[in-house]
Amino acid sequence: MALNRRQFGATAIGSMAAMWAAPSIAEGKKVSLKVGGQFADSHPSSKAMDTACAEIRQQSSGRIDIQFFPNAQLGSDAAMLTQVRSGALDMMTASGISMQVVSPIAGISGMAFAFSDYAHVWQAMDGDLGASIRTGLDKVGIFAFPKILDSGYRNITTSNHPIDSVEDLKGMKMRVPPSPVWVSLFTALGSSPTSITINELYSALQTKIVDGQENPLTIIESGKYFEVQKYCSITEHMWDGLWIIANGKRIKSLSSDDLALITKSFEAATDKQRTETERLNTDLEGSLKSKGLVFNRPEKSQFRKALTKAGFYADWKQKYGPEAWAVLERYSGSLA
Fold first, then answer.
1. Is residue 23 part of a domain?
2. Is CB count within 10 Å lower at the N or C end of the chain?
3. Which residues does UniProt assign to the signal peptide (predicted)?
């Protein structure tokens, strides 16, 4: 039924009043944010962050000027984490295991052989385990967005021989990220772990400072480690992800509308990135084989038995505490 003029006028005035009462996101205060990333711009996490930042700029008509800097342009993981905590850097992508130096519980999701498949990973990280990690980070001034990016299951590459058994790791010079979990894991397996940052890893492999390293296939491919490594052993010894984190005070100073827009864009990009990373970590094997990398699949149970015998799980259960460990085992099953 057609509106008469009086009805139309009242409707139009009401609509305009509603618009004036709730200004659009594009009309708010100018916001500038820098986000640091550690991996090459070709890595799925870097692509996801670049896409999300572009979406935020577009949705805010450029008012939220958020820029992503991949490939450790703003510093190593440790350097960027220090900057985020001090407020010198607004945001970054960060592995939970790398952040355990400032919040011990952050590394619990990287426990060796904890998650048998992706279904268990996402149940844990989108559930109580992820919530516990975010709460721990918040206590040290770090805000973590609700959904974690997928880095993938980690595998071992070597230059001298494949890893078919625990014995093959004895005395091997293994590069590991600067984190207590990684160091203790490979020490328990008998190798000689050396902490080297991701931006120095290629040269360390090229100059034989270390014999091998461990990473998901996406990082092995994007970092071009196949050029300086011969073997890839599919151990899937650890799952790892990247939290999108921010300086707590900085993020909480944003308006609720701005934070909602940023969160929504990050979550949409994360969902797509998870699907793409899972696919790539399967499909890349064929591509890497064509580039000369030789693959093998050792029996995983032998590594877990060796870790149990060495007291690895018992030690970390004590460090994390029974409450946090119980949350982990709700998704992983009994580990110790």
1. no
2. N
3. none
Ramachandran bin of 229, using left for φ above 0, alpha for ψ from -120 to 50, beta for the remaining angles: beta
* pTM for the full predicted model: 0.86
Is the CB of residue 52 less than 8 Å from the CB of residue 18? Answer: no
CB burial string 161-185: b at 16+ within 10 A, e below:
ebbeebebbeebbbbbbbbebbbbb
**Residue pLDDT tens, the chain, 336 long:** 444 444 434 444 444 444 433 444 556 799 999 999 999 899 999 999 999 999 999 999 999 999 999 999 999 999 999 999 999 999 999 999 889 999 999 999 999 999 999 999 999 999 999 999 999 999 999 999 999 999 999 999 999 999 999 999 999 999 998 888 999 999 999 999 999 988 899 999 999 999 999 999 999 998 999 999 999 999 999 999 999 999 999 999 999 999 999 999 999 999 999 999 999 888 999 999 999 999 999 999 999 999 999 999 999 999 999 999 999 999 999 997
Sign of the C-alpha dihedral computed for residues 314, 319, 325 and 331 taken in this order: negative
In sequence order, what are the beta bridge partners of 149?
A: 242
Q: At what angle do helices 312-320 and 301-309 cross, to 10 degrees?
A: 70
Among 143, 322, 125, 92, CA closest to 240: 125
Alpha-carbon span 125 to 328, nearest angstrom: 10
Evaluate whether residue 3 is within a structural domain.
no
Distance CA 181, CA 239 (A): 12
Instruction: Report DSSP state, residue 3.
Output: P
Q: With CA atoms as reference, report the closest residue to 142 among 236, 244, 40.
A: 244
Whether residue 223 contacts residue 217, with contact meaning beta carbons closer than 8 Å, is answered with no
Total tally of structural domains belonging to the chain: 1
In a domain, 24, yes or no: no
The CATH number that applies at residue 317 is: 3.40.190.170
Nearest to 134 by CA among 94, 78, 176: 94
